[in-house]
Write a structure and sequence with these properties.
The chain is mainly β. It contains no helices and five strands.
Length: about 110
């Protein structure tokens, strides 16, 4: 099942190389998520969670922001897919992410 969501992107990291003979190539997007209450107490605020999507080439689409990254992050539109996880759990997979449209003419 796919669904759209709005969020705040706080950081992006590309990774490419080889480790112990295994190649890796990915981009990780760090998105702000609400910190939930637990059985042990209440919570306030947000934390970030990493979502891997695509190869390190995905980073190139965002690299122009390197010297102007806002302290609070960037508003984004995301597409997630809910997939089956281990032990009858659900897993969110990031399928697409784009800066939120500002409404300004191009």
């Amino acid at each position: 099942m796919r669904f759209q969501a709005q969020g705040v992107l706080t950081g992006i990291k590309s990774s490419k190389g080889e480790y112990e003979g295994r190649a890796f190539d990915s981009t990780t997007f760090h998105l702000a998520v609400d910190l939930p209450d637990s059985q042990n107490g209440e919570s306030l605020g947000q934390v970030t969670r990493p979502f891997k999507m695509g190869s390190s080439s995905e980073f190139a689409k965002w690299k122009h922001l390197k010297n102007s990254w806002p302290a609070g992050g960037i508003a984004v539109d995301c597409v997630f897919e809910m997939a089956a996880g281990a032990d009858q759990s659900s897993k969110l997979v990031l399928v697409d992410i784009k800066p939120k449209a500002t409404g300004k003419a191009a």
